[in-house]
Amino acid sequence: MISAEIDNVERDTMRQLVDSLRQKLGSGVVVLGAADDGKVALLAGVTKDLIPKLHAGKIIQATPRK
After folding, report:
1. What is the pTM of this model?
2. Of 10, 11, 26, 54, which residue is least crowded by CB atoms under 10 Å?
3. CA–CA distance from 8 to each of 1, 22, 40, 43 (Å)?
4. Across the chain, where does the E strand assignment appear?
5. pLDDT, tens digit, for every residue of 30-55?
6. Is the CB of residue 34 less than 8 Å from the CB of residue 6?
7. Sign of CA pseudo-dihedral 12, 32, 55, 37
8. Element (H, E) at 58
9. Are 45 and 18 in contact (CB under 8 A)?
């Protein structure tokens, strides 16, 4: 699993980064978070082999927010 907070990155760039990291990971989950203008953006990606077991949207929903 890869998780990280990143700064000064737009959502489209975050999506591209999630896709890139997911491909390099081989098998696993990528979760990235960024604060932007007082709001939090969270994105998750799951490798193809884990899709039957994990859902990226549900990972984000289960993530605690402050």
Report:
1. 0.81
2. 26
3. 22, 21, 12, 15
4. 2-5, 29-36, 39-46
5. 999 888 777 888 999 999 999 999 99
6. yes
7. negative
8. helix 56-62
9. yes
